[in-house]
Hints:
By secondary structure, this protein is of the alpha/beta class. The protein is built from five helices and six strands, in the order βααβββββααα.
Amino acid sequence: MEKELMSQAIIVFDMVAKNKEEVISQMSCLMGADGRLLDLNGYEQDVLKREGQASTCVGFLTATPHAKSNHVKCPSLAFARLSEPICWDCEEEEVSLVFQVAVPAEGQGDRHLEILAGLFRKLIYDDFREELLNADTKETVLGLIGEL
């Protein structure tokens, strides 16, 4: 049975991290623990490789690290709200909200782009970001994200 894109198991509030590598590692571990990855280290390396090509800091206090990877079982979207904002790429832009996308390399076409586009359509709204920053339950986050 195919997993939902998001689940409570891959949503975390008040994540403590010093840099984007720690965030990516913790979020990859959440996905691995939820049975969404074939190889945790392989997927994490693919995300870091993609991150090295161009920043995934998208403004609005948000980053969207992602990878199409042979190490992913099913399309997934993890969410973390950081306990303290971090500098994502040592630019002025700080990040408090992180959406990490995992999509299998095979058979998914541009699914990662569809997920990101759906997110961006929501992220442009101040109310949406404010609700994420103030959400106190994982159910609230699931409701805000909805279907992408």
